[in-house]
C-alpha cells in the first residue's frame, strides 16, 4: 500500500523545521527527539506524514539543495555574460549568501553518506553532477558566444571549478579560516579568466 501523508501543510512544516538540523547533525546524528524539538510535533505526527526518518532526511536534503539553487540562480541570471555568470557563483559563495550556518548540504551529505546511506549519497552525487553540468553548459555557451577559447575542455574546466568551490568550503569550515575560502575561490576565478579569449 502506498504511503499517503496526513497533511501536506504539516509535511512541509516538518521539512522546513528539520532542514537545517539534518544539514548540521547529519542523518546518523539526528534523533527523533531532535526532530520533535525542531518541529514541536510528536513522533506520531512526524511519522503520520513521513514513512520513516530516511524519508524526512531525503526531503530535508532536497529542500536545502533547492534553497541554494534559488539563491545562485538569482545572481547567475543577473550576470550579463557567460563569464560573469560563472564568476557569479564565486561571488555568491564568497559573500556567504548561499551556504547556511550548517554548511554546504552537498558536501555534508556526501561526506556522511558515502559509506553509510546509499540513497543520500546518490542525491548528493546527483547534486554535484548537476552543479558541474550547469558550469559545462555555461562554458559551452561562452565558447559559442566567443567569450571562451574553442580549445577549452568544458568537462575538465567545470569539474575543476566545482572541486575548487567545494574544497574551499571544506577547508574554510574545517579550519574556521575564511581567508582560505577567499584564496581558493580566487584560484577558481583565475582559472576562468585563463579560458577567456583575450
TrEMBL record:
InterPro entries: Homeodomain-like_sf, HTH_TetR, Tet_transcr_reg_TetR-rel_C_sf, TetR_C. Keywords: DNA-binding, Transcription, Transcription regulation. Residues 8-68 form the HTH tetR-type domain. It comes from the Bacteria. It holds the Pfam family TetR_C_13. Residues 31-50 bind DNA. GO terms for molecular function: DNA binding. PANTHER family: HTH-TYPE TRANSCRIPTIONAL REGULATOR LMRA, TRANSCRIPTIONAL REGULATORY PROTEIN. This is Transcriptional regulator, TetR family.
